[in-house]
Structures are given as C-alpha cells and as structure tokens.
Amino acid sequence: MSERTGNLSGKALILGSIVAALLLVGAYLAAGGSSYEPKQVQDPCKPRPWSDPQTLGQIANQFTISALDGAACQLGVTRETLALALTTLERRERFEERYGIDDEKLARAIRAGLVRAVDDAEEAGALSPLIAVPLRQAVQRIPLEQAIEIINDAQGFLGDAQGFLGPAQGVIEQLLPGGLGGLGLP
Amino acid sequence: MAESRRPRVAALALAVGLVLADSSIVVLALPEIYRELDTSVSGVTWVLVSFNLVIALAAVPAALVARRVGPARTAAVGLAIFAGAGLACGLADELSTLIVARCVQALGGAAAVTAALELLPATVGSERRAATVWAAAGATGAALGPAVGGLLTELVSWQSIFLLQVPLALAAAVPILAVAKHEAATRVIEAEVRSTGRPHLWANLALAMVSAAIAAALFLLVLLLIEGWRLSPIEAAAVVSAMPLAAILGSRLAERVGDERSRAAAGAILVSGGLAGLAFLPKATIALTLPPQVLVGFGLALVLSALTETALGGRAPQAIHGGWTISSRHAGVVIGLLLLTPIFTADIEEQRHDAINAGTAVILDSPVNPLLKIDLAEKVSERLDEERGKVPTIGPAFEPKPDDSSQRAEVDQLQSELQDQLDRGATHAFSTSFLLAALLGLIALFPIGLSRRVDL
Question: B243, B278 in Cβ contact below 8 A?
Fold first, then answer.
C-alpha cells in the first residue's frame, strides 16, 4: 500500500505519545483543571456571620442576605434561586409553580426571613434593640408585596425605620445614664 | 500524468474532498442553525448525524453499485444528487426538511466517493497512487471543512455552505460525465462483481472508535467556543484550525514510521491525551485549547492513515474495502455524537443552573450599593430569559456604568467575577463528555492491538 522510510522506531513513537499525553494532562491538573467549576452556593440554613458593617448601605446588604437566607431555608431552596425569583412577577410565578408554593407560603417564608435578618442585625450590634423590637413585630404582619419590597430595598426600609424611631432614641438616651452608644445604632 | 487526465483527476479529488468535508463543514454553523430554526442542541445534532449515518450505511452498497453499473456513471449521478440535495439544504426553512435533504445528500456523496476510488486507478495509473490521491483529497476536505464552514456562516449565512456546494459538485461532475459516456458506449463494465474477501474487522472497528473520539473532539470544542465562550464562528474557525494544521505536521511524522500498529497506537494515545487535556482545562482561555488540539491533530494524522492502510492492505478491490473504511469512520462519528450528545446537553443544563446560582451569589455577596445590586440582578435575570438555554452575554446588564469612580470599580469587579462563574460553568459542562471521548480513543487500542495488515 505505502512505502515508508521507517527510520523512527514504533516503540519510541508510542513512548513519546504516552509522555506527551501525560505531561499535558498533568500540567492542566496541576494548574487546577479538576476544580475549574462554578463555586458551590452555601446552605441557607447555616448561619452566615455578619462582617462588621459600618454604613447604612453595608447594613442593608447584610440584612437582605440574612432575609433571603431565612426565607430560602424555610422554602428548602437556595438563597440565589429565591433572589432571582423575586426580581420580577413573571419569575416569581414560575418559581411558585416549579416548587409548588403559593403566595401565602411564600409570604410566611419571607416574613420569617425578615425576622431572622432583624435578629442577625441585632446580634451583630448593627441594630438597636429599641428599633429591633418594633421592626420584628412589624415584619411579621406585612403583606407579601411589601415584604418583597423590603428585601429589594432594605436600605430604604432601615433608613425609614431609623428616621421614624429616631426621636424615641433621644428620650431613652436622656433616661439611660450611658446613652445608646453601646446599643450599636449607626 | 497525461494532460488530458489532469481535469479528471482534479474533478475526482474535488468530488472526494467536497463530500468528506461535508461531514464536518456544518459543525461551526450548527449554533447558527440551532438559533435560526429554533430547535434544540439534540435536534441540531441530527444535521450532522443524519449525513454521517447515511454515508455509513450507503458506502459499501454504493461501491457495489459502482462496480456493477460503472463507476463514472455512479460518480456523475452521485454528484448530481449531492448538488440537488445541497440546494434543498440551502433552501430549507425547517429542521426536518434540512435533515431529509442531508440524508439524500449523503446518498449521493457515498456514491461519488466510493466510485471515485474505483475510477482513480485507471486515471492515475496505479492503485497505490489512486489511494494516495483519494486519501489526500479526503483529508484536505475534512481539514478545511470546519474553517470554510465558519467563514461562510459568519460572512454570508449557514445556507451559503450548502449553496456553494451546488456549482462545485456540478463542476466536478462535468469531466466525469465524459468518462461515463465512454463507459456506456464501449460497455466496459464488468458483468460480475469480483469476490472481495472479508473486510478487516479490527482495523475498521478501531477506525470507528477513533473517529467517534475525533468527531466528538471537534463538535464539543466548537460548541464550547461558540455557545460557552461566545466566540463568533469565524473566531472559532480560526481556533479549531489548530487541529488540521497539527494533522498536516503529524502526517510528515507518520511517513517516518513503517510499523502501522505502532503508528495507530501512538495516534490513539495522542488523541485520548488531547481530549483529556480539553476535559481538564484550568481556565476559559483560547490559548489553553491549543496544546490539546495539537495532540489530537498529530494523533489523528497517525492513527487514521495507519488504520486505513491496514484495512485496505492486501485486500481487493479497493473500492469495496474503501467503502468499508468510509462506513466505519462515519459510523464512528454517528456513535460518538449519539453517545455524547445526551450527556453534554444534560451537563450543560446542570452547569448553567449552577453557574447562574454561583453568579447570583457573587452579586449578593458583592459590596456594590444594594439598590444597584437589585437593579443588576434584574438585568442579569432578563439576559437569562432572553438567551434561554444558553450562557448569556452579561455585558449589557452592566450598562450604563455608575459615574462614581469607586462604585464603577466595584461594578467592574463584580462583572468580572460574574463572567468568571459563567465561564467556569460553561467549561465544566463539557468535561465529562471530553473524558468519555478520550476513553473511546483508549478503547480503540484493543482492536489496534489485534489488527495486523495482510499483504498479498
């Protein structure tokens, strides 16, 4: 069929091929080829420590994450799935249909999430107990749309709460010798 | 070679190159066909599978027909069918029409290619020279196919790939028609088909397995580049050209090794090593696809030539045994695509879900202003809805960028992290399929070990 010079040994060729293949695969594995995949999302039921927020924006960030974790934990989904589901009404309906959840169950879960967010904020010293107590009471009764609105705009919600309850702090500060400095309201 | 024979040799080489290019030429057009005909990845795979399946089934019968009714007439009719069906492919506006036309095109193609192998010895003067011309034309077509397909898809349209084949196939048919007239007038057709002997089982089995691995390499890599990493067809064509370029260099190396089994074994090992490299890409970077492609290219040059020579060596007539090798190679392509398509489509969906979750986690955990974050999450989710089932382009979701420089830096950082998660998901989605393809290449070592050339 064909005439070949045959000046290269077959064994040398096979050996060279094995070495080349192993070198390539070894180099790629050493460079992280076996772990190049999307990062795994965290279980929402596990506590997620707050990272010492300073500004209202940072507190709102942590508050939203805690609320989503709490609600997602109740619903048995990831916090990321829930966050995307709450971006539009259409996505929310698709999410409810896929997971067999109705508005009432979703509302209960989000309220529970908001309560967890208030608890976490208080525990981290980011929210004064004087504000945390009424906030906790308030979020347990709010309707679904408002609950979603709080998650979407935690900064506005916390700002409003502070503005509304702020004057009460002054009164308490006069009554308490140490003031409210130790209660951590930013 | 006589001057008068040159157009005929060129026509036969063009016919072989055109048909064998067709099994891979649409690979880079598949994402475009997938979008335009509104189908699924599994559905669009049949544009490739149907062509290769029909060639695999029709190659040996076509060789028998060529020997019975005359190779020139068979080749001319085959090319006419190939051209007509190509026109139908180019005009198809539904996937089912396209697939049926591809089947008819493959029938014509099988007739043309096997008849060409029967015609070439008389045209070029020897069976050995004929096999060399035939193999070189096929390899050139297969090597140029993806790049030409990518160029045409981007510069004109996917339909132009098929429409361009019509005049080329007809141009190849014209010089062959003259032989067909002579063939009919002088009744030189043999009345009986010679006994052909059994095909070389092990060499053909190994050819099928290696072809499955190589087809998977090309198909998966193109999908990864276009659908996963969002390259344009022309860019993807440039990237995957590394494989045929390496194959050309590999063929030089192949000429220096006489032992066919060693060449075949070394080639299968290189193909498997390259595929395993693609399975373990450490980053979504084009440059990192090049070393594995070089290995696959070198490997395919070694293994395909060695196995084809083993399968044809000492067996006559060449057309029938050439038919068996074509059948094995295309059957391998079909097996590779059918085996791996359900696996990687399921993996793509799973990884898309994981990448979206990871990307959302990146957005939620970022230090970006909460209101901006919600706005971004909404825009990214819109992109996901718009580009259903695919890895989205997230750039537009981040426009316009905030005026404040520190916020803009945070948004840029977020965009880069989000893109990284999507790239990771897209790349990882192909890992299992590349590994399985590598395994197919390694399994081919068993029949290669059992194959032995029979010399007359």
Answer: no
The whole-angstrom separation of Cα B168 and Cα B166 is 5
Q: How far apart are CA B146 and CA B135, in angstroms?
A: 18
| Chain A residues 92-151 with a CB less than 8 Å from chain B | none
Q: Rounded to a whole number, what is the distance in Å from the CA of A139 to chain B's nearest CA?
A: 20
**Preferred mutation among B126, B269, B321 to probe A, highest tally of A CBs within 10 A:** B269
**Which of B162, B184, B206 is a domain's end point?**
B184
Contact A17/B266, CB-based, under 8 Å? yes
pTM value? Answer: 0.79
Mean pLDDT check: name the lowest of A168-177, B307-316, B428-437.
Answer: A168-177
| Structure tokens that stand for B156 in this block | 């004109």
Parse chain A into domains and list their residue ranges: 57-166
Q: pLDDT tens across B73-107, in order?
A: 899 999 999 999 999 999 998 999 999 999 999 99
A44–chain B nearest CA distance, Å: 11
Q: CB–CB of B270 and A21 under 8 A? A: yes
Rounded to an integer, what distance in angstroms lies between the CA atom of residue B58 and that of residue B215? 19
What is the count of structural domains for chain B?
A: 2
Q: Which domain holds residue B405?
A: 197-456
User: What does the alpha-carbon distance between residue B32 and residue B137 come to, in Å, rounded to a whole number?
Assistant: 28
Task: Clarify whether residues B326 and B433 are in a common domain.
Answer: yes
Positions of chain A with pLDDT lower than 50, given as ranges: 1-3, 167-168, 171-186
Best residue of A15, A19, A22, A39 to probe chain B, by most B CBs closer than 10 Å: A39
Which pLDDT score is estimated for B3?
52
Residue of A nearest to B279 (CA): A33
Residue B38 forms part of a structural domain:
yes
Angstrom CA distances, B68 to A15, B117, B243, stand at 47, 14, 39
Domain check: are B414 and B282 in the same one? yes
CA dihedral B291, B292, B297, B301 (to 10 degrees): 110
Please check the confidence at residue B314 and state whether its pLDDT lies above 80: no
Residue of chain A nearest B419, judged by CA positions: A38
Q: Do B370 and A57 touch (CB under 8 A)?
A: yes
